[in-house]
Design brief:
Elements lengths: L5 H8 L9 E5 L5 H8 L3 E6 L12 E5 L11 E7 L8 H11 E10 L15 E2 L7 E2 L2 H5 L3 E8 L5 H4 L3 E11 L6
Parallel strand pairs: 1-2, 1-4, 2-3, 4-5, 6-7
Antiparallel strand pairs: 5-9, 8-9
């Protein structure tokens, strides 16, 4: 099992700590690195990606599936939904986000790269975010509007120690449906 990096740890730290079942839907799971760790931590994980990976091995708390983020009606909803390093690859990321919000019962945890932090040769990133919209960069704060009426927190995180020297970041975006601003005070 590959070790977790700082981005994975930040994702796990963003999970709700009370009033939530330990069930996770991971949209765009890739090879499944974080999913194996989560299943070992007694989370029940349903992970999917548009491409099948040879590393996928279903387990007691873990199920992998080849599926598309735009086929959300076929996916089970979950208290916690993860979408890490996916939206930068999808032209219709706003529709993908709407599907993720629909699948989320309590908390949605998203990571996307800051600017072109991890856009190496051969990467197919079509979306880039910054703290303010300018040129080819979208304003990351648009997620507050796109996730309305729910509470959204946005922060920058590093993936590896060496990223501090190269100015590489990821944005960690957390949406919580318990903070619904259309319901008014409880």
């Amino acid at each position: 099992m590959q070790p977790l990096d700082m981005k994975d740890i930040a994702i796990i730290d963003a999970f709700p700590v009370y009033d939530c079942e330990r069930i996770i839907l991971n949209a765009g799971c890739g090879a499944g690195r974080i999913d194996f760790h989560l299943s070992e931590m007694d989370y029940r994980v349903h992970a999917f990606d548009c491409k099948h990976y040879d590393t996928w091995v279903d387990g007691r708390n873990l199920k992998f599936q080849k599926a598309n983020i735009f086929e959300a009606e076929d996916m089970p909803s979950a208290p916690i939904v993860i979408c890490s390093q996916v939206l930068e690859h999808i032209k219709e990321y706003k529709q993908a986000l709407a599907n993720l919000i629909a699948l989320t019962e309590i908390r949605l945890v998203i990571t996307i790269p800051y600017r072109k932090s991890f856009n190496g040769s051969g990467d197919e990133h079509c979306n880039f975010w910054d703290d303010h919209a300018s040129g080819e960069f979208k304003d990351v704060h648009e997620f507050q509007i796109l996730c309305h009426p729910y509470g959204v927190a946005i922060s920058k995180i590093r993936t590896k120690l060496k990223d501090a020297r190269t100015d590489k970041y990821n944005y960690l975006i957390i949406m919580d449906k318990r903070q619904n601003y259309t319901r008014g005070p409880r």
